[in-house]
Every structure is written in structure tokens, then in C-alpha cells.
Amino acid sequence: MRHLAFFVVRFLCAALLAALAAPAAAQVAMPDAGQMSGIPLPAPELAVGTVGVRVVRERMGNNVAGQAVTVTANGQAKTATTDAQGRAEFSGFAPGDSVIATATVDGETLTSQPLLVPSRGGMRVALVAGVSEAQAREAAEAEAAAKQPARQGIVVIGGQSRLVLEFQSDVLTVFYLLDIVNNARTPIDPGAPLDIELPRDAGNPALMEGSTTQATLRGTTVRVTGPFAPGTTSLQVGYSLADAGKTYQLSQRWPAAFEQPFVAVEKIGDLQMTSAQLPNTETINADGGKQFILANGGRLAEGDTLTFTLTNLPAHSRVPRWTAVGIAALVVLGFGIFAFGPSAQPERSQLQSERARLMHELVAIEERRRAGKPKARDHERRPALVAELERVMAALDDAPGGGQGAAA
Hints:
single chain; 408 residues; alpha+beta; Immunoglobulin-like; seven-stranded mixed β-sheet; five-stranded antiparallel β-sheet; 6 helices; 24 strands; 34% strand; disordered C terminus
């Protein structure tokens, strides 16, 4: 499962650019003033050739009035003083001019990125003073708050939480990549552990690398104990669904509110995903030639169950089963020859030799597939080998001394 980490990084980049992000846009917070400082923004409401500069201290709205601001273009500098809103306006620039705005506030020099004057409308830029000091103060306050005793409260499943389903060695594998979020400034104790009861048919469940040490796994129950530190606690769980069949319904109850459920399913063939709780869907092409169905939906309350149905799942390859049978058959082949000796009938001996040859070829194909180095015709040859092996085994059952199937 370790390779999933590389996939997740690529997947998130694609997912964030997908149209599915649109329903969530209203929930995205505006960047803080420090992130906006010096970044030019188009201002279609301004006249062509106009540049507006706003100076604030630490945050938007904390305006710095009476502040000298200088803008420079083509080696020529212009200076103005900010008004009560912290704004200064400059005009007369030609479209295509590169303009840089500067101001010195309390000894700190603030400089914008180059502003390219557009042919329509103008440009605006904010210069924010005291960002480093504010960040240091907030970090110290957060550190002090995090050391306080835990208090009763709630946590949610939020952030970049998502469920990813992909096929590994022809087996449907499920990953829960969850952010348990404490939005408070102090540690939070929900009052009870968060228990996630995985589906009963979840095979080989495991806590993945990167999960919090607060998580434990017993059987198919994942337990995460509090208290939870401010910010995000990462939980990553994986399991397989070896016998999903052609149609599979996955239902998962959540012990905390799930802010925005997001599910990605690798699409193979005509595979489809449906869920009344995930109405927004889109299919994207990911790196490596894979396709994924992306789906998201509205908030789930604590104790709610997320349910979605997968249809037209690809049939599982029969090769792993025949490989196991083949290995067992090859092991006991020597015993079979010894038991029947030279007096065994030629027909049965020929069938046994043919079976061994088919088994050997199937094992070789499977080993190449697992190593990621299949031959061009392996995918065509494999079904033919399986069919021929079934014919040979049926013939062995009918041959003199038969009735022993794969162990003959």
C-alpha cells in the first residue's frame, strides 16, 4: 500500500482542478492578508492605465492612512499618500507597462510583484505590514493554547478527507484517507474514542504509514482515542474486497461529522458508481493512463452512514487460483508418478504431462504479470491456457484411475 502515497499526491492535484471543486467553492475561505500581500489583481472597475495600492497593517481593514506609497514604471517614480481607507491611486500608465509599488511602514519595506498594466481596466495591489510579527505572535499563542488541558468538544472529518478505491492485482482495494480536524485552539476530548467499524468482508485491513499513533486496529474495528490536538490528525486505513462480485454496495458509518464526503473509484471497463449522497460526479484521466470516477456530496452528521453502489465490476482473474492449484499439483506430481509406476496407462501419463506443462506456463505468465513485465500476448494466451487446463483435468477424471482431480 506504500505506493499509494505517490498516487495520492498526483490524484489530489487532478481532483482539485476538476469541476467537482465548484460545489465546494463557496466553502473555501479567502486567503489571509499575508498571502495577498504584493500580489496584483485585475480591477476592471478602474480606468485603463490606473493602479490602486492599499496599505494595511497585519490584516485587511486595519488601514494605514497618511502613508507614502511609490510606484515605478519605465524608470519613472510617482508618489502619493494613502487616504483614510489606506488607498492611493495612480493613473497615466500605458497598457503593457510593468509597475512596482513600494512603501515603508515602521521601518519595514514592502514591495509588490510587478504589475503588468492591462489593456482593459486597471490593477490593484495590497501591501501588508507586520506579517512576520503577526505570524510569530499567533504561533506562540497557538503553542500556548495547545498545552492547555483538553476540554470537552467535537472533532470532524474534514480537510482533504477522501475514500479512494483502486484495483491492485485484480482485487478491489479501499483506502480511507481521513483528516480528523479539531478547529479549536486547545486540545479537544470528544468524550469517547472514535470507532470506525469496517465492512464485515473487509480483507487484510491495515493502518497505513502516516496514520496517527492514537489509532489502533483490532479485527475490522479502527479506534482513534483522544484528546485531539488543535489542527489535523491523520488517519489512513486500507483493506481489500476480494469477493466483491459484479455489484458491490459499500456502507460505512462515521463516528464524527463528515464535512464533505469525497470518493474516487478507479474506472475499469463499464464500471459505474451511484449514490444518492454523492450527487456530483465526474470522470477524469489520471497519470499512468488510469481513469477515476470522482464524486462528492453534502455534509454527513455524526453517526450517519455513507452508502454507494459499484456496478459492472470487472471479473476477478482465475489465474491466482489456478496458480495455487498448479503449485500444489506440481508438488504432488512426483507422488502420482510413484504411486502409479511404469504400469500406469499411457493415456493418463500423457494427460499428467500436459497438465504439468500448462501449469508451468500459467505460473510463468502470472509471475511476469506480478513483476510488471508481461509479454505482448500473455493476456490472450492466459484464457486459452485456463480452458485447456480445465479440459485436461476433466479428461483425467474420466481416465482409468481418475476421480482425483487436481491432485491426481
